[in-house]
Amino acid sequence: MHRLLISAVAITLGSLLTLPAHAIPANSSTGQTTTQLPRSIRPAHYDVALKPDAKALSFDGKVSISIEVLQPTNSITLNAAELAFAKVVLSKDQNGASLPAPNVQINDAQQTATFTFEQVIPPGWYRLNIDYSGKIGTQAAGLFALDYDSNDGRKRALYTQFETAHARRVIPSWDEPAYKATFKLEATIPTGQLAVSNMPVEDRRDLGEGYSQVQFLTSPKMSTYLLFFGLGEFDRATAKLADTEIGVITKKGGTAQAAFALASTQGILQEYNDYFGTPYPLPKLDNVAAPGRSQFFSAMENWGSIFTFEHSILLDPAISTQADKQRAFMIAAHETAHQWFGNLVTMAWWDDLWLNESFASWMESRTTAKLHPEWNSTLSDVNDRDRAIELDSLASTHPVVQHVETVEQVNQAFDAITYQKGEAVIRMLEAYVGENAWRSGIRQYMQAHRYANAVSADLWRELEAAAGKPIAAIARDFTLQPGVPLIRVENQVCKAGKSQLRLRQGEFSKNNPDKKPLRWRVPVRVQSFANAAKVDQLVTDGVAAITVPGCGPVIVNAGQSGYFRTLYAPKLFAKIIKNFASIAAIDQLGILSDASALGLVGLQSPTDVLELVKATPISADPQVWDKVAAVFRGIDEFYRGGTTRQAQFRRFAIARLTPVLDKTSWTASPGEPDTVAILRSNLIATLGSLGAPDVIAEARRRYLAQSADPTAVPAPLRKTILGVVAQHADAAAWEQLHAAALAEKTPLIKDQFYSLLSTTKDESLARRALDLALTAEPGATTSSAIIQAVSKFHPDLAFDFAVAHLPAVTEKVDVPSRGNYFSRLAERSLDPAIIGKINTYAAANLPAGSRRSADTAIATIGYRIKARNERLPLIDQWLEQH
Questions:
Q1: pTM for the full model?
Q2: From the CA atom positions of the chain, what is the Rg in Å?
Q3: Best label site of 396, 425, 494, 620, fewest CB within 10 Å?
Q4: How far apart are CA 203 and CA 207, in angstroms?
Q5: How far apart are CA 403 and CA 172, in angstroms?
Q6: 770 near 790, Cβ under 8 Å?
Q7: What H or E segment, with its residue span, contains residue 248?
Q8: Which residue among 163, 301, 310, 335 is the active-site one?
Q9: Cβ atoms 198, 229 nearer than 8 A
Q10: How high is the pLDDT of residue 597?
Q11: Do residues 582 and 452 lie in contact, with contact meaning Cβ atoms separated by under 8 Å?
Q12: Active-site residue 335, yes or no?
């Protein structure tokens, strides 16, 4: 074993004074932010040297940290998890005298190490040098290994995942976002392998005996969770944008699949350089594509080295669809936006995680719409908002800005409220103040807090100053309190060619629709069918009167930029149904969403959405029909059990969707819009799930014919056709898919086969998939995905299995996901008995302050059972009449 050496470019007290301004700790909004560490010490720079042993799944490390002691103390406490310390030395500077060796105390529960010295350490600058060792995991946390098949046999690559609190598994550090510092990384690696980090390689030299030493340039000042290291048999495709080198790193032979991601990142980066007014500051931006998967994330925004699982960024011509292509672009747009929102300006503490995630989601949507207008992606904003509302309307909801105390609570904060609700609120506020004013405020925010930390109030201050409107109060209403406003449209009176509306604000709740509502200041946009003009008004104190031009039917939340549900009086809604075909597509989507949700909680008839479906013309926008298909899938889930009632509903749904598929056809037309290609796949999948005999038969025919006819299963429909076959598989078909999984060498395709094996509706085959998940065969990161996939059609079975095999399943779930994973398996259940099982599991395995996932599962199941019992009978009656 070669001894690891601390970098020769060590930073001393004197050299700290010559660092660029962004490398020196600066005053920001972090003074009173939450911390789990003592405030007496602040790190400024880390020299890190690693020597990983991929085969042994272990590593040796050395770190030399430049720290400022802010007040007299005799101890230093930092974060460390699963690290073994060999030597700890504190010196006044790099060449100064060292203090006597400290007493080292490890607190596994707090994930800290405390070094206690015999004498008091006075304020000033010091170097803390630590020799240590650690473990390489097999799940995506800390430094981890991913194994994969290749044409040259089984391979292993190493990557890091440090968000939320996993840098401490690799480096003893102040592993909290407010403790920003610079990093200089050095690694001893097998010669011939490629190492990658946040910054470009500064120096590489051969050490002999099969090893090389790689040094990377010093990073800008950043939080620990953004540091990255990867190592393996990699290829790198590159492009250039001004002074920035853009790259995509894949395993050997994979760069052809990265062409779209590489080209997309060029366009995205150029757009962001312009929008933010602060150019991307690093010399390179890589996207590192890795095999495997995680239950916690698909990509991570490490500064300069974005990590993304292959299934989310690479396009394999054998299996990738148009939806995959759009997803790859949007993920690249999201993670690149983080280079500003999150990396350049970082939330002070996890309470304000939304400053990272909501804004990256909003930039992702905005940039997709601008750079790919042919995708008409603004319509998908409605679906994003709905995902947030579905979670936000449960009794277990939480505010966008939420108080976080523990690591486990941080992990639970990554949900649709933090992402999609925050995004929807941003979109609503931008529409309220105007795009130009909003952009000016964002630019000011970036300039004021670059290389530092911020809280929500910092953002509102800059935006309010730029907009000249009092938006902070509106923003606080939507980010500091939970829940979803409900705007009731109570009446409409026509006078002198104008419509006078009375609105009343309530609250939309799936578990308690009659609850006393909270109060919001709600920006509302209204439009009459008879006039193109839109009228904006703020609903305050729960009521508003609005006058709009025209006397036709009206749409409240025209353009769907508002974060609320809209409930129309029955007579007004009848007019909307009658004119539904002429409404703009984005409003058709919003009205379908509202009617479906409000109908299932009992605020309007559950059959209103079916009346809208009847009124939807075959020529409607493909994304509107995507929504109709989703509505049908949702209702069908409530009928789960194969009863005659479900068969009656399915006959209606199949009859409504079949003509749309006939028009779309199974065969793509030259030059057809991308939205049509996606609709085709969704229609086939939905009709297959609904048991449409013709669709199932055609999918099976094509699957069996593919060996003789290569065109039978075109690449854009491969996932869909195999999905229908797998759902309705018998034992022989399941075995055939299993054999294909075993034989496949391409990780992207191999993982797909294991997913297919998990989606069968046959319970006995689902049990076989669960048993398979506990073996080594699918791969360390695939097993948890198999169990999750089984829960789609067999939630009770999947939950019972996972809890019965708790230790074994836990080992196959990445650490950040463990607090959420098990309860979520049960969310689709319709059995009241499972609520008790979830409570039993949570009481035994989740800390009292970290059981949100269990509470969410319980609230979801309670809502589903109530909707099934109380609302489906009304749908049954309607179906009998239609």
A1: 0.94
A2: 28
A3: 494
A4: 13
A5: 26
A6: yes
A7: strand 244-251
A8: 335
A9: no
A10: 98
A11: no
A12: yes
